[in-house]
Write a structure and sequence with these properties.
43% of the residues lie in helices and 20% in strands. Helix 7 links the parallel strand 6 and strand 7. By secondary structure, it is an alpha/beta fold. Helix 1 packs parallel to helix 8 and helix 4 runs antiparallel to helix 5. The protein is built from 14 helices and 12 strands. The strands form 3 sheets. Strands 2-4-1-5-6-7 form a 6-stranded mixed sheet, sandwiched between helices. The chain has a 3-stranded mixed sheet with strand order 3-9-8, sandwiched between helices.
Length: 356
């Protein structure tokens, strides 16, 4: 699963990516510094994993992870190829969700390609380019399917009705995710504006309240979650040694960095959650889609676990956190035996039994 970081040039995408991955993506005061997308695997922060490690003292602790992709800045006219737009749009088409980074900071030393800080305008520029790219794609598909429909192909006739709805909505300037069409039906069209979006505002250390309000209102109008961080400060925090990070955050009066909040929000944006396996060899967080049943969740560990699934021994993280050991949970009857129809919940600790 991949999450693409998109936005106008010079909004801080590469700075955010570097801080997320502690990597070395190119970052400078020039549009299109990033040409090919940078990809990084980012560990998902989870205090529950640390607590489980304290209880089990494993040889190894493995967190969940998600992939972030730093995609080059889009400009007005990207759908018509401006600024290598077609190439960059194709990179967005390959990701599963979008973090739309919006510039909220003023800095005369960093060129703003639109001339001034205006989050509403900037969001609309990017959104319009994605809509135009989707409209061009749907029009091509419409031409192909309409020919089949005229020949009497029943499947094409049914598909044409949906294409007409999508075409009309996009032409009216609406995103595909706002049409009320089920995700399963939209998936086959590979539309940019069908992807879930998290808006992230990149602020100054002393944010402008009016700019912040405009950003939050614009995100809300689009039915998406939003959050803000100071990319420059986050990059500095990411460079601190682990032992210095917690005291620094305490001085700021925050429990988690902005980066940690972005990672968790992006993880949830994909409809993902974690369950755990725990023992003396390893404590590990496993990533699954919300709603997965026991066999499918077990299959994330190994396909043999899904094929031969018998049952799962399950307890909630909160229970072992409160009682301190599996022995205490067994004594209280809090470890449950669940079958194939059990829907695994976020924070479940599972032990799967399967036949070879």
């Amino acid at each position: 699963m991949e999450i693409g970081i998109v936005g106008l040039p010079n909004v801080g995408k590469s700075t955010l990516f570097n801080a997320l991955t502690s990597g070395h993506a190119a970052s400078s005061n020039y549009p299109f510094t990033t040409i090919e997308p940078n990809v990084g695997v980012v560990l998902v922060p989870d205090a529950r994993l640390k607590r489980l490690s304290e209880l089990f003292h494993p040889k190894k602790t493995t967190p969940a992870a998600v992939r972030f992709v730093d995609i080059a800045g889009l400009v007005q006219g990207a759908a018509q190829g401006e600024g290598l737009g077609n190439k960059f749009l194709s990179h967005i088409r390959e990701v599963d969700a979008i973090v739309h980074l919006v510039r909220l900071f003023r800095d005369p030393d960093v060129v703003h390609t639109m001339g001034s800080v205006d989050p509403r305008r900037d969001i609309e520029v990017i959104e319009t380019e994605l809509i135009l790219a989707d409209l061009a794609s749907i029009e091509k598909q419409f031409e192909k399917v309409s020919g089949k429909a005229r020949s009497g192909d029943k499947q094409a006739v049914a598909g044409l009705a949906l294409l007409e709805k999508l075409k009309a909505g996009l032409a009216a300037g609406k995103t595909a995710r706002s049409f009320g069409v089920p995700d399963a039906e939209l998936k086959e069209f590979f539309l940019l504006t069908a992807k879930p979006v998290l808006y992230v505002g990149n602020t100054d250390e002393q944010p402008d309240p009016a700019i912040m309000a405009a950003f939050e209102a614009t995100a809300k109008e689009r039915g998406s979650n939003s959050m803000v961080l100071c990319g420059k400060m986050e990059a500095e925090i990411a460079q601190l040694p682990d032992e210095d990070r917690a005291p620094f955050l305490a001085d700021l009066g925050v429990a988690a960095t902005g980066l940690e909040r972005v990672i968790v929000a992006a993880y949830q944006l994909l409809g993902l959650q974690s369950y755990f396996t725990a023992g003396e060899d390893e404590v590990r967080a496993w990533t699954i889609r919300a709603g997965m049943k026991g066999p499918q969740a077990a299959g994330v560990i190994h396909t043999d676990f899904e094929k031969g699934f018998i049952r799962a021994e399950v307890y909630a993280y909160g229970e072992i956190d409160a009682h301190g050991s599996e022995g205490a949970l067994r004594a209280k009857g809090l470890i449950r035996s669940e079958g194939k129809e059990y829907v695994v919940k976020d924070g479940d600790v599972c032990f799967f039994k399967f036949s070879n």
